[in-house]
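Could you please consider the sequence and fold appended to this message?
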Amino acid sequence: GLEPVRCPALLLVGDTVHVETELVAMRPSESRPRNGILTFEHRGYNQRDVLIATCRRNVLMLRAADRPEQS
């Protein structure tokens, strides 16, 4: 789920937004050994590179060792 969403600056009509995503944590799932829990931090900036929004998101994903091979 999403952890606290912060909006430190206003987003105005006509602004151009770009977003960065960073992987900040990962750990094995205790209840699902074939999966891992990743934490991403998302940051949104306006055209002047002013930080306008941040949040963290946790996701459950299949671990790399358990993914089927692609050909």
Remarks:
- The first strand starts at residue 18 and ends at 28.
- The chain has a mean pLDDT of 91.
- The chain has no helices and three strands.
